Amino acid sequence: MPIDPSMLEAFWTSTTMRGESLMFLEAPDGRATASLLFPPTRGLSLTSATGQEAFEEGRDYAVDPAAGNVRRLQGSRVPVTTRAELSRLAAAEDDGFHRRQVAATYEHAAGLWTGQVPARSGAQLARTSERLRTSEPLTICLTGDSISEGYNASGFMGAPPFQPGYGELVAGALERATGSPITLHNLAVAGWTADHGLADAERVARTAPDLVIVAYGMNDAGYADAADFAANIGALMHEIRSSRPQAEFVLVSPMLPSRECGFVVMARFPAYRDALARLCGQGAALADMTTLWTDLLARKSDFDLTGNGLNHPNDFGHRLYAQMILALLAG
Predict the structure, then answer these.
(1) C-alpha angle 133/288/270, rounded to 5°?
(2) Per the domain annotation, does 209 fall within a domain?
(3) pLDDT, tens digit, 9 for 90 and up, residues 47-104
(4) Distance from CA of residue 313 to its chain's centroid?
(5) What domain range is 27 assigned to?
(6) Which of 20, 45, 136, 165 lies 20 to 30 A from 38 at CA?
């Protein structure tokens, strides 16, 4: 479904946070508090993640502007989750986790974000940038795993507010902003790793892409070191360029999984990011979600950002992916 373009405004340039996700986890003393990314100055509203229920300050929650926290009040309608419930919700593979989260919109002071800020990659992605600047058609092919397929975006799950995954968000936003007719081929498959992507390179090339978004790493982190991972991504790029030499690439380093995601080796994520950065240059740019997620987690909980408690982004997380890629492509 169409999304309000303001929801894709890069949060690091704005003084309005829109739809920031929170999850209220019950502490041993029965209290439940969630952290906002920024101290709110005014206008904080809190709704269910589905958008179907609005909560009331003073009845359902209290705000501590100085600390940037929201506290759930006794008898509140705001959903609360116990630690014991997290594993069950993660294993359910339905929209139960989504329905335990809420969305906060509020105004805040300017210049508060000190974390990752992506720069536009006009020089690295010169052909793509020029096609967008002149409103020419652009074909994008997305190759990746379940995150890129759209898992745990509400639209993918068939739950309100029916937001699509980040690939569709990027394509729709570029078309609106530039007037370029955008064709998106999403070839991502749940469970895939970079070696699957390499094996699928011919199919990617057959879509005649102007831009290829390559987004692997979450599943690779269970078994592959950075050198092997980078070798597969580099070979994938080479195979596509052999038949589509003008194709340009956005290489996406993955979000961080939660601490409950036991099959991954966490140290591999920054190593993957660094390996992908070394593959970038003329015709290839890095969308560094790994650093962005690390910076967000300095303030936020894992469970504020994940859509399944483990290794997929929620609606807010998919918008963060889109904001990062859009910042590279269109500023």
Answers:
(1) 160
(2) yes
(3) 999 999 999 999 999 999 999 999 999 999 999 999 889 888 887 889 999 999 999 9
(4) 6
(5) 5-108
(6) 165
Q: Among residues 82, 108, 134, which one ends one of the domains? A: 108
Q: Are residues 157 and 193 in the same domain?
A: yes
Closest CA to 286 of 242, 233, 245: 233
Q: What pLDDT score was predicted for residue 1?
A: 57
CA dist 80 and 214 (Å) reads 36
* CATH code at position 250: 3.40.50.1110
Q: Does some domain include residue 117?
A: no
Mean pLDDT, residues 265-290 taken together: 97
Predicted local distance difference test score (pLDDT) of residue 57? 97
Residues 6+ away with beta carbon under 8 Å from 193: 145, 216, 219, 220, 224, 232
CA distance 146 to 216: 9
- Does residue 30 lie in a domain region? yes
Q: Has residue 121 got a pLDDT over 90?
A: no
Three-state secondary structure call for residue 145:
coil
How much is the pLDDT for 191?
97
Same domain as 305, residue 194: yes
pLDDT digits (tens, 9 = 90+) for 299-323: 999 999 999 999 999 999 999 999 9
How far the first Cα of the chain sits from its last, in Å, is 24
